[in-house]
Amino acid sequence: MAEHGGTKSGTRSATLKVTGPQPAGRLTDRQGADMHTSEIARAVAALVRCKGDKTTAVKVAVAQWGEQSKAAALLRQAIDTGSIGDEASFAELIAAVPSRSIIRAVDTISPFRAARPGMPVLVTSTPPEATWRAEAQPIDVASAEFEIVRLGADHSIAGIILFTREAASELGERFVRQIANDIGASINSAEGRAMFDVTNAGSASMPASILYGAPTIASTGSTGEALRADISALLDAYGGDLSRSVWVCSPSTAARLSMLGDGLQGADVHVNGGYLAGMPLCAASGVPNDVLALIDPSGIVLYDGGGQVSVADQTLVHVAAEQGDPEAISLWQKNLAATRFVRALDWQAGRTGVAAAITGISWSSTTRTAPKVK
C-alpha cells in the first residue's frame, strides 16, 4: 500500500517522533480489563481520537489522566516541537508488542556496534590484544588492523495501516495497543527478512543482509545427527568471537530444534530462543525458516534512528489490487483514518567472518511415523 503524494486542503495530520523506553502505566479500558500501556501510547491514543488535532488531544489527555500526566506533557511538547518522546520511545513501542525484534533480542544479549549517519566507526579486523611491557616502555597499539565504516540515513522501513474512526473512538487505548502490535509486527518481520536473507544483496532502499557473501553450510538434514555435523562445519568456517556470538533463527525453527531434545546434546531451546552449542539463541519473525545463523554483533555496525508515527483522516491512499492498478481510496469518504509509520534503520558488517549460516534446512524431510487412528 502506498500513500498518495497529494493531500486535500484542510487535512489534519501530526507527525510524532516516537523513539525509546518510557515508564509503563496501568489503566482500565472501557470494557474494564486492565492493560499495561506506556505514556507514549496514551499520547498517541489521544491524538488518534482527536484526528491529529494536538491541541484538542491535550485536553483529552488532561481530562482522562490529569493535568500533570506525562501523556499531557508529551502532547504539549508536540505542539511546540512536532515530536513526542526521546530517541528511545520507538524502541519501547517495539519491545511492547507480542512479536519480537531480532535486532533488539540480539542487542540485549550481545550489543551491536552503534553508529550515527555519516559518523566514522572503527571496527578492528582482529580482536584487540594487549601486551606486556616493562615500566616506562612504549605501549603497542592494541588494534593494528581495522576498517572504517560510515552508515547513511537513506534506509527505512515504512508502512500505512488503515482503521475505522469508530474503532479509534470506542476502543480507546485498547485500539492503540492493537495498532502498536500491527506496527511492531510488520517492522520486526521486515528487519528479520532483510538482515538474514542470504540472497539479499542490498539496494537503494534496503541494506544488504549480513549473511550475503558470508560462509554458508548447505544443510545435510534436519535430524539431530545431521544438525550436529552441520553446526560443527559452520564453527570451522566461522570467524567471529564465540564468547560474543549469538545464534539466530525463526520461531518455527526454534520450535523444531526444541523437539529434537537430546538429539542436540545439551541444547535448551524454546520458541523464543534459549541455548545451542553453549551459545545463546534468539528467535524472531522474519528470519527465514530454512536458516540457522551465527553472528558476532561486536563486528556489525548498526544505526537505529527510531521512528515517526503520523495520523491522518482526510487524504487519499493507494491500495494494491490483486489485478490491475492500485485503487485510490478517500479516507474521508470511507470514514477511515490512517497511521503511517517510518523506522530509520541501517547496518553493515564491519569485518569479515562475523556471520555464517546453515542454509536450506528442510524440516519436512525429518523422518516421522504417522499416528494411527483408532
Largest sheet: 7 strands, mixed
- Uncertain runs are 1-36, 367-374
For the record, give the distance between the C-alpha atoms at the N and C termini, rounded to a whole number. Answer: 49 Å
The shape, in one word, is: globular
- How much helical structure, as a percent, in the residues? 25-40%
Number of DSSP E strands? 19
Radius of gyration: 24 Å
Q: What's the tally of helices?
A: 10
Report the β-strand fraction as a percent range: 25-35%
Category from helices, strands and their pairing = alpha+beta
Average pLDDT score = 80
Strand order of the biggest β-sheet: 9-19-14-10-13-12-11
Helix-strand pattern: EEEEHHHHHEEEEHHEHEHEEEEEEEHEE
Task: Describe the protein.
By secondary structure, this protein is of the alpha+beta class. Helix content is 29%, strand content 27%. The protein contains ten helices and 19 strands. It has helices at 39-49, 54-65, 70-81, 89-96, 102-109, 165-171, 173-196, 224-237, 251-259, 331-334; strands spanning 2-3, 13-18, 24-28, 34-38, 113-114, 121-124, 146-149, 156-164, 216-218, 246-249, 268-270, 273-276, 279-283, 292-295, 300-312, 316-319, 327-330, 336-349, 355-359. A seven-stranded mixed sheet has the order 9-19-14-10-13-12-11, sandwiched between helices. Strands 2, 5, 8, 15 and 18 form a five-stranded mixed sheet that branches. Strands 1-16-17 form a three-stranded antiparallel sheet. Strand 16 (316-319) and strand 17 form a beta hairpin. It is globular and about 65 Å long. The termini are far apart.
